Amino acid sequence: MSRSAAPWPAGAPCWVDCQVDDPARAAAFYAGLLGWGFGEHDAATDGYLTASLDGAKAAGIGPKASGAGMPSVWHTYFAVDDVDAAAASVAATGGTVLMMPFNVGTSGRMAMAADPRGATFGLWRGTGLPGADVTHRCGAYGWSELRTPDTGRAARFYEWLFGWAFADASPPADDAWLFIPGGTGAPGGVVRFDPAAGAGAGGASWAVGFLVADLGTALGRVDELGGVAPPEGRDGPRGREALVAGACGETFLLVEPGGPPGARP
Q: CB neighbours (10 Å) of residue 62?
């Protein structure tokens, strides 16, 4: 689905990007997996690459902060009307502001934050870049999922911060809810997740999902391109899905919406 240049509704996931050790390697991986294109490198962006799908802005890939001993990771950014006010609300409701609000050239204003269980996310108020131009189609971003050991606390935090409403997920899962910013749709979910399986410092993390036409084929491509994938997918709120790792170790979801079982051919 392509979008106009209008601002994203407040509370909606509007952009995703990843920080990795080798952006060029990551770019080659996603070009082969999702069909993304990348323009010429611009020194003014400090190595940040903007991915496009059929000419529409789809996501970003950038280098980790200098000297940062952090894993490669995908982040979801949520649209807000006022980044500074939203950052203050994060701190007031038990979260942590990891990166204070700042301007990103003429693109917009942002901050990085973590919820009470340590799941990190971005706050974004776009000007030159309202957010992604293409979402919810094969090869593009289409799902964000909070994996947390405390779904009740998470629901209260994000309801207060973004005004989300929640609905039961389908198919049924243990404490799995869909979040609906402003009642406009359900672009993601909140699910109970065992912290021992690996997540943020408090046992929680946001997973970013990309849509594919055939999950089994996509899992095979992940391995061919230098990533790591399970032998098959599982049923999720949106269809068949699998958590995989990219060429730089960053994890993300591949989702085949409403598709049949996604075992590799």
A: 17
> Is 4 inside any structural domain?
no
| pLDDT tens, N- to C-terminus, the chain (265 residues) | 545 456 788 999 999 999 999 999 999 999 999 999 997 655 456 789 999 999 999 999 999 876 556 889 999 999 999 999 999 999 999 999 999 999 998 899 999 999 999 999 999 999 988 899 999 999 999 999 999 998 889 989 999 999 888 887 655 455 677 787 765 556 788 888 766 555 445 579 999 999 999 999 999 999 999 999 999 999 877 789 999 999 999 999 999 998 444 333 3
Domain that holds residue 240: 141-257
- 117 in the same domain as 33: yes
CB 142 within 8 A of CB 188: no
> What CATH code is carried by the domain that includes residue 230?
3.10.180.10
| The pair of three-digit structure tokens given for residue 239, joined into one six-digit string | 């269809």
**Matching residue, tokens 């198919």:** 171
Q: Which two tokens stand for residue 150?
A: 């405390």
